[in-house]
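WARN retry 2 of 3 for item q-0093 after timeout on previous attempt; input resubmitted unchanged.
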Amino acid sequence: MSPYCRIHAVCTANVAPMDIDGRRIMSGIAKTAVSHSALPARIAVGKLGLAGDEQADPTVHGGLAKAVYAYPQEHYPFWEDACRRHGAALPLPLPPGALGENLLISGLLEGDVWVGDLIRFPDCLLRVSEARQPCFKFQARMGFRLAPKLMAQSGHCGFYLAVETPGTLGAGDEGALEPGPRRQDLPGLFRLRMRGR
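OK item q-0093 returned
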């Protein structure tokens, strides 16, 4: 049986200004759940991502290759502990969307997926395309300077998904992993990207 994941929340955001080191920067990282256990709504997903979700800089999130960002719920305790230790102002426990993800999932970690793998949900098909890289907006969102370093060291990066077959997604959906060509594992790609920086 193929490994599977479960969606706990579908999250979106409008682009809004953030004050970062005295500069006003536009970002869509502050996502909130629009479909969760108490609100299992169906959210349309097209080739460029979820309905109602905006990205300020499609070179880092958005476009065909990075239409949807998934993050494992299993890593939330790690970040909650880090927020406590570093005095971050985010609410605890962290709400869905806290790490800028569109899909808060469980069951699939970075080490389980390879670039090109497919995740088949009941009403759409997504393809693993890239590892997320931490940036200055992630640091600002988390509220402490060591956040990007902790992501780099832990490998808790989550992964971007391209939309192979548009449809809808909702909290409670389960997706089955279908192996792709298996030429590049996601943790290896993440380490390669981080070395390049």
